[in-house]
Every structure is written in structure tokens, then in C-alpha cells.
Amino acid sequence: MTNFEPKKLKNIWTIEDSIATYNIDKWGDKYFSINSKGNISVAKDIKSANKIDLFKLVTELKSREINPPLTIRFNDILKDRIHALHEAFLKAIKTYQYNNIYQGVFPVKCNQQKNVLEKIIELGSPWNFGLEVGSKSELLIGLALLENQNSLLICNGYKDEKYIEIATLARKLGKNPIIVIEQRDEVKRIIQAVHTLNATPLIGIRAKLSSKSSGRWSKSIGDNSKFGLSIPEIMSTIKELKEANLINEMKLLHFHIGSQISDIAVIKDALQEASQIYVELCKLGAPMQYIDVGGGLGIDFDGTKTSSNTSTNYSLQNYANDVIATIKDSCELNNIEHPTIISESGRAIISHCSVLIFNVLGTSHVSSIQKINNEKNQSLIISNLLETFYELKKLKNKKINLSQIIELWNDAKKFKEDCLVAFRLGFLSLAERAYAEEITWACAKEIANNNNLNNDDINHPDLFEITETLASTYYANLSIFKSIPDSWAINQIFPILPIHRHLEEPFCKGNFADLTCDSDGKLNSFIDNGKIKSLLNLHEPEQDKDYLIGIFMTGAYQEALGNLHNLFGNTNVVHIDINQNDSYKVKNIIKEDSKTEILQLLDYSSASLVESIRINTESAIDQKKLTIEEARKLIDQIEISLRKSSYLSE
Ligand SMILES: *Cc1c(COP(=O)(O)O)cnc(C)c1O
After folding, report:
1. Which residue's CA lies nearest to atom 2 of ligand 1?
2. pTM across the whole model
3. Ligand 1 nearest-atom number relative to CA 294
4. Is the N end or the C end of the chain the one with fewer CB atoms within 10 Å?
């Protein structure tokens, strides 16, 4: 039983109420909605009427033994996002009569999973969509997967000799790697590689911009940023490339001002500065062809369309327009040909398609008295508390006087504190202390469920702790550190809501605790119409029935950054195609990690772990602490468990 009571009569809760509660019409760019059964439905693309029922999908996946926690990737949404990005640039190119093309790349670090990259390459191929890599391992993936001879392979990150040599030779395979100089001493390594290999790479340069950035990644820009060359360094690099006879390979200017840039003004400033650098590079004699505007294209996680950290004050089309228009202006003023435009938009492409589903294992909350116990010789403090409770109960259905309620609540808190003092001094038994606490929570409940109090009343500074205290913790079958690390590391907010039961009022309030033994393993920041709140409206889980929660727009960065805290491993992953007739096809299933697989990553062998435990059982049998039968059972259980999921099963 929750501490809260429904505000609306049970049968008048509508889908519209749920939409308003979870703002589902605001975030998510229209891919998600609620169907007539009260379940979340997922659309094939933003224009499509083809939708599938997410709750039904998860239920049917469970029948296939694909249990939550579960990552579902919708191939169609990925396709739609890639499409939308290219359409936006095509439209901007047309609008501004830009004389060149857009040719994007996907930054591999955003999601390196093989199934994801293969899908992106397949879906992006009509536009010659390429990849951006930031390390040697990513480079190897890029070389192996990217077969389209017209796609670009942008090589970023710190580069040693081997990195440069591989990228240089790959040009001879008919691939299009462009080595972007990020650091001054990469220049001499490139020159060295050219001598050693007798081959030349295509070269780009990453500029360190001075324009101001904002938001979480504002340090990606400015004189002290980690990457890129300052203007003096660019000048000496050009000189050096000229001397080495390599200036003819210098084709690209790159910049990246951080991820999830919320404010279009920041993007415009950076674009202006970079366009001007581009023009100057042309004037210095480099045969420039490309300008690569990096990542940073943000998405609206909170649905506010503002420059808050989790939103953007611009649309995809605004972004494309600004990129095209700014670059065009600078080039025309200087009589320079329009370059091919590259962007490295990761988050904006890959976020929407992934939904993380977890089940709730149980709930807990402070308990209040079930039954009043009117003993004669009760301690005075307890009878005082009880009296306060009766007063509050009387006020429940009366026209209220807020100050009276506040006074009574302050009394209750004072009496509770008195109880604690009395307990410490030995005047109150443990049972009495428990009783006092329960009466205090009963007082809180009377206030929280008083229908005459409105939202402002209940959020009054003297009362607002009540809701928080009475709220429930929902135990999530999930590791935040593995599956949604940004919510822990940088307080990133993701849309979170139940994927079913939207025809019922979610009158409980709660937040989530994950499976790890870490007190940071909590989800307690939720989107509420532009504000962030610590509690989410939830339903009371029903006995023996699943209560399934979805975390939306999780496709970018989460899988790559997830860690093995407490040894919870990769969740199950499925790729889904949505068919025309509102049905679906399960395309790929990537099974979750077994405990054996996770242990292996840390150099443990399951066999030797089992063997050590078996040797222990032998001594225990020797000492008659364990029977042979018990030992066998224990080893059997361990062996079975090692093959199974690291998460809780039913
Ligand atoms: C991380 C990164 C990106 C991707 O940025 P998003 O904001 O996710 O689009 C692009 N380019 C570079 C150089 C990066 O480091």
C-alpha cells in the first residue's frame, strides 16, 4: 500500500491526463505516444500512422526468454533520424542556393556496437554517410565496416605513427580517410609516414575556436581546450606542410564545440569564426574542400525547447540553415567556392531509437499506524502525538486553514523529536518509539491526502518535505552504472515513465533505486514541464504482475560509458523493425552477458572459481559441517547461476 490516495476518481483518469503527467507529447519528437489500451506506442517514423504497442512487444519478448532489463533499438527510428538530418541539409542547401553538398559522418564513440554501426552504414549509404573515428580501435572498425567508396572516414583523436600509417595506407584501398591534425606534433609524424610509406594521406586540421560555448561541455572550446590547434599553431602547421610539399593534401577544416549545445547563438558564433578560418586557409594556398562542423547538435530531452542543459532552443532545420547560411556568407564575401559540408552529429541521430526497459522488483516506504492503540498509561509524548493526529483527521474534509495545518505538522515533528530524546535517555521503549514514528507518518499522510490542499499548499516550505518523506522507493532491476551512466555521472535527465497502465491514475510518488550496493545508484531526477522534480508519479505495482518502466532516448553514449560496478553486465538487446500493418519483426537479438562472461572480463575463470568452492566443500564434508548431498546442491546452483544473467530473474 502506498502512502498516497488517488486525487481523481478512478474511472475518470484519461490518456490525456497521462500525457500531461509525463509530457509525452513534448519530448521524443513524436515517436512515442499512448494508445487506447493505455500502453506506450512507438511510431515507425514521425509522419507514420504505423505504430506498435511497446508493452505488448516486451511481453512477447519475455515469452522468448528475452527478459528485462532490456534495450530495444528501433531500426525505423534510426532510419528516420538519418533521413531527417539529410533532408534538413538538403532543404537548407536549396533554400540558400548553396553550391555544394552535405556529406555527414557518424561519430563512432557515440555508439560503437557492431549492430548499430552496421545499421547506420546501411541506412546512410544512399547519402554516402561516413564515420568519424577517434582512436586506433575505432579506425579499424571504420576501415572494416565502411565499404562505400564515396563515404568519408574522418580520423580524429590523438595519433601515433601507427594510427597515421594505417590511415595513410587505407587511402590505397580506395577508402577516404582524412587525417585531422589535432596536435602540433602530429604534423611531423605525418611527414615521417609519407617518407616511410611513399604514400600521402588526405589532411585536415582541427581549429581551437575562441568563441564562447555554454552548457556542460563548454570547456571543449576556448584557448585551453583539450583538442585542436590555436591560430598560431595553424599558421606554423601550414608552413610546415608547404615545406614538406604536402599542402596539396590539406583539404579540411574541422572544429567541435562540445556535445548537446543548447543555444543556437553559441553554434552561430562558432560557425562564423570557423568559416573565417576556412577562408583564410584558402587564401594561404591550401586547396580546401571540406568544412567539418563537428558534433554538438542537441536534442530535446525535456521537451521545453529552451536552452536548458537537456533541451535546445533550435530545431534540426534551424541548425542546418545556420550551418549552410553562415558558411555561404563567408565564402561569397571572399569569392571562395562553397565547401562540402560535413557534420559529426552523433547524439542527434542515435538517441531516439533506443529504449531501455526495466521491471520493478518491489517498493518500500515509511509505514504509518494501521490501528490506533489507546492504552491508558501511554507516555505523554505519544498521547500528544495522537491528539495531533486526531486534529488533522478532523480537518481532512473541512475547508482548510493552511496555517492551522502547518502548526499541527510542526507540533507532530516536535513531538517526534521529543520521542527520540526520550528514547535516547531510556524513557521510551523501542516499541513506543516505533509507534511514535508511525503516528507521525500517519499525520503526514492526513496532510498529503487532504483534498482541500492544492499543489501550492502542499509545496509550502513548511510542508513540502511531507511528500518526499512519504514517497516510495521503487526497486529497479537495473544497474544505473551499466545502462544509464550519464544520469549518475553528469546528472543527465532522460524521459522515464511506465510503458503501460496509462488508463489508471499514477497516484503514488516515488523514485528508483537500482541493484547496485551504491547509494548513488538512484534515479531521482525527472522531467516536469521544464522543471526538474525528484519524484515521479507512478502506479502501485500489482501482485504477480510486471510493472515495466521505460527510459527513453538512451541511444547515445550510455552503452559505451557503462561500467561493471557490482558486476552487472550488458542487458539483452533486440533490434526491431516495425511493419506496415502495425506488427513487428525481431531482427537481431544480442543476448545479455552471463556471469561467466562478466567474470572472464576481469580475468576470473568460472571453472577455477567453481573448483575453489568445491575444495572448500570437501573440507566442510570432512568436518561434517556439510553433507555430500548439500555440497552437490551448492555446486549445482553455482554452475547454473554462472551461465545465467547478472540481473534478477523471476
Ligand atoms: C563526441 C564528438 C562528436 C559527437 O558529438 P555529438 O554531440 O554527440 O553529436 C563529434 N565530433 C567529435 C570530435 C567528438 O569528440
Report:
1. 295
2. 0.94
3. 11
4. C
